[in-house]
User: Fold these one by one.
Assistant:
Number 1:
Amino acid sequence: MTAGGSSRMYDGRPVAYRRAQRREQFLAAGVAVFGESGYQNSSVTALCRAAGLARSQFYELFENREDLLIAVYDRIQTEARQAVTAATAAASGDAVGLAQAAVRAYAESIGRDPRVARIAHVEVVGVGERVEQRRMEQRALWTAFFEDQMRRALGPEFVPPGGFHTAVTGYVGALLALVHQWSTGDEQTDLAGITEVLTRFLISLMTP
């Protein structure tokens, strides 16, 4: 116990810290195993080997592989939103600058690492009802995120063509599809190209 009696210690560090550290190791292992071998070809044994940890430590943190897949997927989406938020905050205030910053930040966050792109766009599809529900929840978060960004940039009086829900849902669908296409290594698609297409799409929604 510490002097205050509120935190247990193990090997000189709080137990909570060690637990959080092991969770990070398993998340990194999830990216490596799910992103390279695929979720269906993975196993708890392979995940533990990649993390350098024991099976008992895996089950202290996750009930099964699906739990880890969801945790990895959530981390990917959260980091992408953080990247877009930072990029738009640093961009010029006009619609073109904001749109370009948002598209590039999302694409680079998701698509630069082929393993991350594979998990985000392929491995979470068709796993089961719980993962599919999380995928839809994350898409809804992106829709709300871009709607909020547009409202902040354009003011409370602005309404895009078709209304916010329709317009932003369409944009998010196009964003996910094109970034997926680029991240798979399609030689006909480059980052500059999808940035141009998606920027024009977003600007069309932001222009009265």
Note: The chain has a mean pLDDT of 86.
Number 2:
Amino acid sequence: MNLLEKTLDLSYWKRLKIAFQYVMPQKYLTQFAGWFAKQKWGSVTHFAIKMFAKKYDINMDEAAKENFSDYASFNEFFIRKLKDDARKIDENPTALCQPADGKISQCGHIFDETMLQAKGHSFSLRDLLAGDEELTETFKNGEFATTYLSPRDYHRVHMPCDATLRKMIYVPGDLFSVNPFLNEHIPNLLARNERVICVFDTEFGKMVQILVGATITASISTVWAGIINPPRLTHVKSWDYDGEQAIKLTKGQEMGAFQLGSTVINLFQQDRVKLAENLDVDSVTRVGEVLAFKK
């Protein structure tokens, strides 16, 4: 069943939900969410955070700050830190760790330049990497893992292994929601959305970690550059980190954050790693658990 047939097979309301993604003012909704998330309205903010946490069944016992009143704004709550012992980092030197809490959306082999987005349709590695020829050649026939962070998840992103940052690329794009339903029904979604591509050197070969934006994801940040967006540029922009500018990060270290949920994509070179056998679509992920092993 192709994508059109799958869409026509859906109920009227589901088709309407997909259509709405194309016509809604993505940028303005996201700008409003960003403005709202910054507001410090005291008890009103605390009540809203409490209702949000209840709706999404968020476990506050593992948060460094357990009380809703400890957060002055939604932004502070969205990127809340966890207690020091909340996530154990796997110490096996041949293992790479999960970068985020969430669920595996897809994972597996990159067939030449083709990656699986969801059951029934794929997207292009070249498109995902904004047409970068060198990076595309580097990761052809490699391995990938896509992790979806829902609104209930911890929103900080960590390093799978020790690594040296070599390049960061901001790619402007759409702001479609990346929830599993829409990921399955909007073609090329992950290669169309705004994203930040981080290129690393590791003992496991080159590695890319991509932070994908989405509707209501008010900002993406990294620990070395701070908030990348907003502002939302209209052109691709890259930063090089060579020589004295190189930035070294360690396994399990925080590398970035989303203000609300989104998606992380990891790319690995051909014949460098083997993804953990227990990983499959909808596998629950936790920072520090095993993502892959050295091949």
Note: The radius of gyration is 19 Å.
Number 3:
Amino acid sequence: MSQQEFDVLIIGAGISGTALFYELARYTDIKNIALIEKYNAPATLNSKGTSNSQTIHCGDIETNYTLEKAKKVKRSADMVVKYLLLQNAQNQFMFAHQKMALAVGESECEYMKKRYEEFKELYPYIEFFDKAKIKQIEPKVILGEDGVNDRAENICAMGVEAGKAFTTVDFGKMSQSLIEQAQKQNKNTFVAFNQEIVSIEKKDGIFILRTHTYQEYRAKAVVVNAGAHSLYLAHKMGFGLDKSCWPVAGSFYLTKQKLLNGKVYMVQNPKLPFAALHGDPDLLADMNTRFGPTALAIPKLERYKGLKSVPEFFQTLQLDTTVIKIAFKILKDPTVRNYIFYNYLFEIPFINKNLFTKGAKKIVPSLKASDIYYAQGFGGVRPQVIDKTRGELMLGEASIVEDGIIFNMTPSPGATSCLGNAERDAKLICKYLGVNFKEDQFASELL
């Protein structure tokens, strides 16, 4: 058994883990930092470009965000843009596409007008689009089912035209960039792939981590950024037992051509805890339109990685009467129940395309089932956390902070919030270790 010792060890080389790796290397006095990843490359799961919508979720068109949440998310989103500008990533893996939040029908249009007035101060670049403007910039959204005449409903939107704000990032490439930049700092930055951490224990103030290959690492502090597996590892240490994990997988459908010029989001149903369907130009599919995501509860912590995470799911679910009561509470609402039911149908061949097209027609009325195909291998897993003490599903990031160790579960917008979450964790780790966080340098570069 070989052994290595570090000041801080990060588990997980997705966008969250690599963001922290970079910030610790650049903005702290910590000298020895390790990043350990179970697979053979960074960002192979939820940070991969095919696993998410490649969107900088800054809160301007996400109608499920309150103004307060938008302010918080915007700060982190701006940090992503500033980091990538420092790396000259614009038009390489960061892009300024057109985007809008679309309202269909009188009630949604009234809602959108009020939202625009409420949010325009926070987002000075945002514009209000009437039907004529939408026809100019997104003609497929205006055309009716016949593809010739304009749709009958009143529609409007709030958004931004192409080139006026950065909207799109390949977070997989950003993860690789963060590792490369961290390794350029004058620190001992160690990165290991194909090393799955299977146990963590704390002995005499030092964390001892063992891998599936019997490698042993030691660290003064540990941060676990391993998606749904963060809670799995926390439970193995006896932490976070008041929380359960309900993994939700998102699937997508791709079109055979470019139907939309930019991102088109819809008004969120307030009863649904998951993002409304939207259309995006896909960076990895020749900019053809990708519709989604669906929301499918699955008994796995990882998707497209075999059945290994099925027993790990059941260990992390911690099924008991409290979890069952919360599940029944969620399913009691017919809107939520029907939504979940239809999302399972979206996975069934022969009927899935026709059913999915009905919902996507709200964005592109002329869309036909023959225009789309199921995006095999696309979509990731978001670890929705159940708080058994409060008796509810937690929406947004969840963390467990213990003495010298942090476990992060980051559902959407985890990628957009990566540098903001990393700032929080870096400061906690610096305080624990009694070292300096370089506030002035951090602020000058990222804030």
Note: The longest strand covers residues 3-11.
Number 4:
Amino acid sequence: MTDEVFDKVTMFGADWCRDCRRSKALLDRLGVDYAYVDVEADLSAADRAEAISGRKNIPVVVLPNGKHFVEPSDAELQGELEASGVV
């Protein structure tokens, strides 16, 4: 785990990752203001994502309330975005 704080939804992913593309499309569809961190372009990003989730899987989606998801389903991610007032 990490003490890193996020002021908006942040997604760690990669362009080649199907689940990343799906989660990114959901965030776009819902009009979420989010930061996208490409783990391939930013050499430290994969380590940051692993520190947050404790896993090497992507996407890792972090909400401003500190809650994070690894490879979330669309329903799971949308439900938490709505519950936390992001959308």
Note: The chain has a mean pLDDT of 95.
